[in-house]
Predict the 3D structure of the following.
Amino acid sequence: MKRTTKSKRKASAPVDLDVLIDDIGALKSDFAAIVSQIKSGAVDHASERANELLSQISERANELYDTVSEQGAVSVEAARGQITARPLTAVLLAFGLGFLASRLVLR
């Protein structure tokens, strides 16, 4: 009887091994599919996040540009007011700055 039990185990063992090999192959392909989905999902999520950050940066840059433009306009108007109020001082100051700049360039 022991012989038949051993022979049955040996005979059924290759069948179980084949089933296990098939199951492992199926698990391997399922795992590869899941990893692929995770990677594409992660890339999609990262891409969406990058687009959100890019739009936020763009909005902030537009706000800064508007602020600098407004401050520049205010500064130009202030300089224009000073030049109008004191034209001789403005001309002498411009001449002095030009003279200094030419001396620095000649060196």
Observations:
- Residues 1-9 have pLDDT under 50 and may be disordered.
- The chain has two helices and no strands.
- The two ends are 112 Å apart (CA to CA).
